[in-house]
User: What shape does this take?
Amino acid sequence: MAGVGFRQWAKAIAKGRGSGLSALVSGSRAASSVTKDSLPGPFPKTPEERAAAAKKYNLRIEDYEPYPDNGEGYGDYPKLPDRSQHERDPWYQWDHPDLRRNWGEPMHWDFDMYIRNRVDTSPTPVPWSSMWKQLCGFIGFMLFMFYVGEKFPSYQPVAPKQYPYNNLYLERGGDPEKQPEEVNNYEI
Amino acid sequence: MSRIWSAPLATRPKTLDPNEYFNLSPDQRRAEDARAALRANLKRTYQLQLNNPHRAELIEDPALTRWVYARANPYPHFKATKKTSLLGAMFGVVPLFVLYYVFKTNRDNKEERIKAGTLERKFSLSS
Assistant: This one.
Protein backbone atom coordinates (compact mmCIF):
# COMPACT_ATOMS: atom_id res chain seq x y z
CA MET A 1 0.00 0.00 0.00
CA ALA A 2 2.76 2.38 0.95
CA GLY A 3 4.83 1.19 -1.97
CA VAL A 4 2.12 2.18 -4.46
CA GLY A 5 1.91 5.63 -2.91
CA PHE A 6 5.65 6.05 -3.11
CA ARG A 7 5.74 5.12 -6.76
CA GLN A 8 2.97 7.60 -7.59
CA TRP A 9 4.88 10.27 -5.76
CA ALA A 10 8.11 9.47 -7.54
CA LYS A 11 6.36 9.55 -10.92
CA ALA A 12 4.75 12.89 -10.17
CA ILE A 13 8.07 14.38 -9.13
CA ALA A 14 9.71 12.98 -12.25
CA LYS A 15 6.99 14.48 -14.47
CA GLY A 16 7.90 17.79 -12.97
CA ARG A 17 4.30 18.97 -12.54
CA GLY A 18 4.48 21.82 -10.15
CA SER A 19 6.41 21.82 -6.93
CA GLY A 20 5.77 20.80 -3.40
CA LEU A 21 2.30 19.78 -2.37
CA SER A 22 0.64 19.80 -5.78
CA ALA A 23 3.15 17.21 -6.99
CA LEU A 24 2.50 15.02 -3.99
CA VAL A 25 -1.30 15.01 -4.31
CA SER A 26 -1.51 14.74 -8.10
CA GLY A 27 -2.10 11.02 -7.85
CA SER A 28 -4.88 11.29 -5.25
CA ARG A 29 -8.62 10.92 -5.62
CA ALA A 30 -11.57 12.02 -3.45
CA ALA A 31 -12.16 9.74 -0.48
CA SER A 32 -15.90 10.41 -0.44
CA SER A 33 -18.51 10.99 -3.10
CA VAL A 34 -18.91 14.64 -2.05
CA THR A 35 -19.02 17.01 -5.00
CA LYS A 36 -18.37 20.73 -4.92
CA ASP A 37 -22.02 21.71 -5.45
CA SER A 38 -23.30 19.56 -2.61
CA LEU A 39 -21.25 21.60 -0.11
CA PRO A 40 -22.41 24.89 1.44
CA GLY A 41 -21.78 27.97 -0.69
CA PRO A 42 -22.31 31.72 -0.62
CA PHE A 43 -25.56 33.47 0.23
CA PRO A 44 -28.18 32.82 -2.50
CA LYS A 45 -29.21 36.03 -4.24
CA THR A 46 -31.45 34.91 -7.12
CA PRO A 47 -34.56 32.70 -6.77
CA GLU A 48 -32.81 29.99 -8.79
CA GLU A 49 -29.95 29.96 -6.34
CA ARG A 50 -32.43 29.73 -3.48
CA ALA A 51 -34.20 26.80 -5.12
CA ALA A 52 -30.90 25.04 -5.73
CA ALA A 53 -29.80 25.62 -2.15
CA ALA A 54 -33.13 24.33 -0.79
CA LYS A 55 -32.77 21.20 -2.87
CA LYS A 56 -29.19 20.75 -1.72
CA TYR A 57 -30.20 20.87 1.93
CA ASN A 58 -33.25 18.60 1.46
CA LEU A 59 -35.70 21.36 2.39
CA ARG A 60 -38.84 22.65 0.72
CA ILE A 61 -38.28 25.95 -1.12
CA GLU A 62 -40.83 27.60 1.17
CA ASP A 63 -39.15 26.16 4.28
CA TYR A 64 -35.65 27.20 3.24
CA GLU A 65 -34.59 30.37 5.03
CA PRO A 66 -30.90 31.29 4.94
CA TYR A 67 -29.30 33.34 7.68
CA PRO A 68 -29.31 37.08 6.94
CA ASP A 69 -26.42 38.12 4.74
CA ASN A 70 -24.48 40.30 7.17
CA GLY A 71 -21.02 38.84 6.83
CA GLU A 72 -21.09 36.63 9.92
CA GLY A 73 -19.87 33.63 7.95
CA TYR A 74 -23.08 31.59 7.51
CA GLY A 75 -23.21 31.65 3.72
CA ASP A 76 -26.27 29.82 2.42
CA TYR A 77 -26.68 27.53 5.43
CA PRO A 78 -30.37 27.24 6.40
CA LYS A 79 -31.74 28.83 9.54
CA LEU A 80 -33.57 26.08 11.40
CA PRO A 81 -35.71 26.62 14.54
CA ASP A 82 -33.63 26.96 17.70
CA ARG A 83 -34.99 23.84 19.41
CA SER A 84 -32.74 21.37 21.17
CA GLN A 85 -32.75 17.60 20.67
CA HIS A 86 -34.34 17.25 24.09
CA GLU A 87 -37.63 18.38 22.59
CA ARG A 88 -37.78 15.69 19.92
CA ASP A 89 -40.10 12.74 20.29
CA PRO A 90 -38.36 10.15 22.50
CA TRP A 91 -40.56 7.34 21.24
CA TYR A 92 -40.06 7.73 17.48
CA GLN A 93 -37.62 5.33 15.81
CA TRP A 94 -34.86 7.73 14.88
CA ASP A 95 -31.98 6.51 12.70
CA HIS A 96 -29.59 7.81 15.36
CA PRO A 97 -31.54 7.41 18.63
CA ASP A 98 -29.06 9.13 20.95
CA LEU A 99 -28.99 12.20 18.74
CA ARG A 100 -32.73 11.96 17.96
CA ARG A 101 -31.93 12.61 14.33
CA ASN A 102 -32.59 10.89 11.03
CA TRP A 103 -29.97 10.30 8.37
CA GLY A 104 -29.73 13.16 5.88
CA GLU A 105 -31.76 15.56 7.99
CA PRO A 106 -30.42 19.13 7.82
CA MET A 107 -28.45 19.88 10.96
CA HIS A 108 -28.85 23.06 12.95
CA TRP A 109 -25.82 25.36 12.88
CA ASP A 110 -25.50 24.89 16.65
CA PHE A 111 -26.29 21.18 16.56
CA ASP A 112 -23.41 20.31 18.86
CA MET A 113 -24.82 22.73 21.42
CA TYR A 114 -28.32 21.29 21.23
CA ILE A 115 -27.46 17.62 21.85
CA ARG A 116 -29.01 15.91 24.82
CA ASN A 117 -26.01 16.41 27.06
CA ARG A 118 -26.02 20.15 26.62
CA VAL A 119 -28.39 23.06 26.11
CA ASP A 120 -32.06 22.22 26.65
CA THR A 121 -34.76 24.45 25.23
CA SER A 122 -37.70 22.47 26.65
CA PRO A 123 -40.48 24.43 28.33
CA THR A 124 -39.88 25.22 32.01
CA PRO A 125 -42.54 25.00 34.74
CA VAL A 126 -41.88 28.59 35.77
CA PRO A 127 -41.19 31.48 33.36
CA TRP A 128 -37.53 32.10 32.63
CA SER A 129 -37.65 35.67 33.96
CA SER A 130 -39.08 34.45 37.24
CA MET A 131 -36.35 31.83 37.64
CA TRP A 132 -33.69 34.37 36.79
CA LYS A 133 -35.07 36.86 39.35
CA GLN A 134 -35.19 34.19 42.07
CA LEU A 135 -31.59 33.17 41.45
CA CYS A 136 -30.23 36.71 41.26
CA GLY A 137 -32.30 37.72 44.28
CA PHE A 138 -31.00 34.89 46.42
CA ILE A 139 -27.36 35.32 45.41
CA GLY A 140 -27.57 39.08 45.80
CA PHE A 141 -29.14 38.77 49.23
CA MET A 142 -26.51 36.28 50.43
CA LEU A 143 -23.67 38.46 49.12
CA PHE A 144 -25.15 41.49 50.83
CA MET A 145 -25.56 39.70 54.15
CA PHE A 146 -22.00 38.35 54.04
CA TYR A 147 -20.73 41.84 53.32
CA VAL A 148 -22.67 43.24 56.27
CA GLY A 149 -21.31 40.45 58.47
CA GLU A 150 -17.76 41.36 57.47
CA LYS A 151 -18.35 45.01 58.28
CA PHE A 152 -20.08 44.37 61.65
CA PRO A 153 -18.59 41.18 63.12
CA SER A 154 -20.18 39.68 66.21
CA TYR A 155 -18.16 37.25 68.35
CA GLN A 156 -18.38 35.68 71.81
CA PRO A 157 -16.58 37.88 74.37
CA VAL A 158 -13.10 36.52 75.19
CA ALA A 159 -10.57 37.24 77.89
CA PRO A 160 -7.01 36.04 78.62
CA LYS A 161 -6.86 32.55 80.18
CA GLN A 162 -6.94 32.52 83.97
CA TYR A 163 -4.85 29.95 85.88
CA PRO A 164 -5.45 28.77 89.49
CA TYR A 165 -2.96 28.48 92.41
CA ASN A 166 -1.84 32.04 92.25
CA ASN A 167 -1.27 31.94 88.56
CA LEU A 168 0.49 28.52 88.87
CA TYR A 169 3.18 30.01 91.10
CA LEU A 170 4.77 26.72 92.12
CA GLU A 171 4.47 25.11 88.64
CA ARG A 172 6.21 28.06 87.11
CA GLY A 173 9.22 27.48 89.32
CA GLY A 174 8.34 29.80 92.14
CA ASP A 175 10.17 29.46 95.43
CA PRO A 176 8.12 27.12 97.74
CA GLU A 177 9.44 28.92 100.88
CA LYS A 178 8.37 32.34 99.77
CA GLN A 179 4.75 33.36 99.97
CA PRO A 180 3.45 34.28 96.50
CA GLU A 181 1.38 37.35 95.93
CA GLU A 182 -2.33 36.61 96.01
CA VAL A 183 -3.96 36.52 92.56
CA ASN A 184 -7.75 36.89 92.53
CA ASN A 185 -9.39 36.03 89.24
CA TYR A 186 -12.93 36.52 90.53
CA GLU A 187 -15.12 39.28 91.83
CA ILE A 188 -17.90 38.82 94.27
CA MET B 1 -60.27 8.67 22.08
CA SER B 2 -58.02 9.04 25.15
CA ARG B 3 -57.09 12.51 26.36
CA ILE B 4 -53.57 13.65 25.50
CA TRP B 5 -51.92 15.26 28.52
CA SER B 6 -49.01 17.54 27.80
CA ALA B 7 -46.01 17.15 30.07
CA PRO B 8 -44.94 20.33 31.86
CA LEU B 9 -41.28 19.92 30.99
CA ALA B 10 -41.57 18.71 27.42
CA THR B 11 -42.89 20.08 24.15
CA ARG B 12 -45.78 18.14 22.76
CA PRO B 13 -44.57 15.87 19.90
CA LYS B 14 -45.80 16.89 16.52
CA THR B 15 -47.80 13.70 16.09
CA LEU B 16 -49.75 14.34 19.31
CA ASP B 17 -50.55 17.95 18.51
CA PRO B 18 -54.32 18.38 17.94
CA ASN B 19 -53.59 21.28 15.59
CA GLU B 20 -52.01 18.67 13.37
CA TYR B 21 -55.39 17.03 12.82
CA PHE B 22 -58.07 19.71 13.01
CA ASN B 23 -58.60 22.93 11.10
CA LEU B 24 -55.86 22.28 8.59
CA SER B 25 -56.16 24.07 5.27
CA PRO B 26 -55.42 22.12 2.08
CA ASP B 27 -52.28 24.20 1.60
CA GLN B 28 -50.98 23.17 5.01
CA ARG B 29 -51.76 19.56 4.26
CA ARG B 30 -49.93 19.76 0.96
CA ALA B 31 -46.95 21.35 2.66
CA GLU B 32 -46.88 18.58 5.24
CA ASP B 33 -47.12 15.97 2.48
CA ALA B 34 -44.16 17.54 0.66
CA ARG B 35 -42.09 17.52 3.84
CA ALA B 36 -43.06 13.95 4.56
CA ALA B 37 -42.09 12.98 1.01
CA LEU B 38 -38.62 14.48 1.48
CA ARG B 39 -38.21 12.71 4.80
CA ALA B 40 -39.41 9.42 3.37
CA ASN B 41 -36.95 9.66 0.51
CA LEU B 42 -34.08 10.16 2.93
CA LYS B 43 -35.31 7.27 5.05
CA ARG B 44 -35.47 5.07 1.98
CA THR B 45 -31.93 5.99 0.87
CA TYR B 46 -30.63 5.28 4.32
CA GLN B 47 -32.44 1.97 4.71
CA LEU B 48 -31.29 0.77 1.30
CA GLN B 49 -27.69 1.47 2.21
CA LEU B 50 -28.07 0.08 5.71
CA ASN B 51 -29.55 -3.22 4.64
CA ASN B 52 -27.38 -3.70 1.58
CA PRO B 53 -25.57 -7.02 2.21
CA HIS B 54 -22.73 -6.04 -0.12
CA ARG B 55 -21.96 -2.81 1.67
CA ALA B 56 -18.49 -2.92 3.21
CA GLU B 57 -17.99 0.71 4.22
CA LEU B 58 -19.57 3.28 6.53
CA ILE B 59 -22.67 5.10 5.35
CA GLU B 60 -21.64 8.68 4.67
CA ASP B 61 -24.10 11.39 5.69
CA PRO B 62 -23.99 14.36 3.29
CA ALA B 63 -25.91 16.56 5.74
CA LEU B 64 -23.19 15.95 8.32
CA THR B 65 -20.48 16.70 5.76
CA ARG B 66 -22.21 19.94 4.84
CA TRP B 67 -22.57 20.92 8.48
CA VAL B 68 -18.92 20.28 9.27
CA TYR B 69 -17.83 22.10 6.12
CA ALA B 70 -20.05 25.09 6.89
CA ARG B 71 -18.80 25.34 10.47
CA ALA B 72 -15.16 25.00 9.46
CA ASN B 73 -15.24 27.46 6.53
CA PRO B 74 -17.04 30.66 7.48
CA TYR B 75 -14.12 32.78 6.22
CA PRO B 76 -15.14 33.15 2.55
CA HIS B 77 -18.48 34.57 3.70
CA PHE B 78 -17.04 36.98 6.24
CA LYS B 79 -17.60 40.68 5.65
CA ALA B 80 -16.20 43.44 7.86
CA THR B 81 -19.40 45.19 8.93
CA LYS B 82 -19.94 47.38 11.98
CA LYS B 83 -21.20 44.43 14.03
CA THR B 84 -18.51 41.95 13.05
CA SER B 85 -15.75 44.52 13.52
CA LEU B 86 -17.12 45.46 16.92
CA LEU B 87 -17.33 41.84 18.01
CA GLY B 88 -13.84 41.14 16.73
CA ALA B 89 -12.45 44.15 18.55
CA MET B 90 -14.29 43.35 21.78
CA PHE B 91 -13.25 39.75 21.96
CA GLY B 92 -9.88 39.85 20.26
CA VAL B 93 -8.23 43.22 20.76
CA VAL B 94 -9.65 44.81 23.89
CA PRO B 95 -8.96 41.90 26.28
CA LEU B 96 -5.34 41.93 25.19
CA PHE B 97 -4.77 45.52 26.21
CA VAL B 98 -7.05 45.50 29.24
CA LEU B 99 -5.51 42.37 30.70
CA TYR B 100 -2.00 43.67 30.04
CA TYR B 101 -2.83 46.91 31.84
CA VAL B 102 -4.52 45.19 34.78
CA PHE B 103 -1.78 42.66 35.34
CA LYS B 104 1.02 45.18 34.89
CA THR B 105 -0.41 47.68 37.38
CA ASN B 106 -1.21 44.96 39.89
CA ARG B 107 2.26 43.47 39.66
CA ASP B 108 3.98 46.86 39.80
CA ASN B 109 1.97 47.78 42.87
CA LYS B 110 2.91 44.56 44.57
CA GLU B 111 6.57 45.03 43.66
CA GLU B 112 6.54 48.53 45.14
CA ARG B 113 5.01 47.29 48.35
CA ILE B 114 7.53 44.44 48.59
CA LYS B 115 10.41 46.87 48.09
CA ALA B 116 8.95 49.20 50.72
CA GLY B 117 8.42 46.27 53.05
CA THR B 118 4.71 46.95 53.52
CA LEU B 119 3.43 43.74 51.91
CA GLU B 120 2.47 41.04 54.39
CA ARG B 121 4.31 37.92 53.16
CA LYS B 122 2.02 35.11 54.21
CA PHE B 123 2.76 31.41 53.79
CA SER B 124 -0.62 30.59 52.25
CA LEU B 125 -0.49 29.33 48.64
CA SER B 126 -3.37 31.44 47.39
CA SER B 127 -1.97 34.94 47.85
Remarks:
- Chain B is about 55% helix and 0% strand.
